[in-house]
Write a structure and sequence with these properties.
Pfam family, one: YidD
Protein name: Membrane protein insertion efficiency factor YidD
Distance between the termini: 112 Å
Organism: Ancylomarina euxinus
Strand order of the largest sheet: 1-2
InterPro entries: Membr_insert_effic_factor_YidD (IPR002696)
Number of helices: 5
Strand content: under 5%
């Protein structure tokens, strides 16, 4: 009886070993076909063109605004951030337009003081924790970015309805 049980164990072990061997050879053949597929794929099709961004006051007509030392300082810092530092980060902005483009537009439209406040608010909201509270209707399903334009922050005048 003991010999029969030992033979059953040996047969079971041999059968499971052969089964595992068959499975591993199938996995190896699939892996080699995957490697061949990877080698056939063109890897140079990625978009490596860097976006070029202009200086904030490049087309400004006002001499005072264009050559003001404060405007030159903040504009230069923004230009350096967009063209040097931002390209080194692997993070992707949650919003469209990006936070630095939003800052540029806010400073152009509302001036330096309000533009800096709007920019700092936007930068504080550009993180994965704050992404949970983004309005669903502002979210684009194709680009996976939320639309947040500078025009959303314009104060709308209240219409006075006077009784006649």
């Amino acid at each position: 009886m003991q010999k029969l049980i030992n033979q059953i164990y040996k047969l079971t072990f041999t059968f499971s070993f052969i089964l595992c061997l068959c499975i591993l050879t199938q996995a190896q053949s699939k892996e080699s076909s995957n490697i061949q597929l990877i080698l056939k794929t063109k890897t140079n099709t990625l978009n490596t063109k860097k976006p070029s961004r202009e200086y904030i006051y490049k087309n400004e007509k006002s001499w005072l605004k264009k050559y003001n030392p404060i405007s030159l300082g903040f504009g230069s810092l923004l230009y350096l951030y967009q063209n040097v530092l931002s390209q080194q980060f692997s993070a992707d902005c949650l919003y469209h337009p990006t936070c630095s483009d939003f800052s540029k537009d806010a400073i152009r439209e509302y001036g330096l003081v309000k533009g800096i406040f709007l920019s700092s608010d936007r930068i504080c909201r550009c993180n994965r924790i704050a992404a949970t509270s983004i309005n669903y209707f502002k979210f684009d399903q194709k680009s996976h970015h939320a639309h947040d334009s500078v025009s959303y922050y314009r104060i709308k005048p209240i219409i006075n309805l006077e009784s006649k």
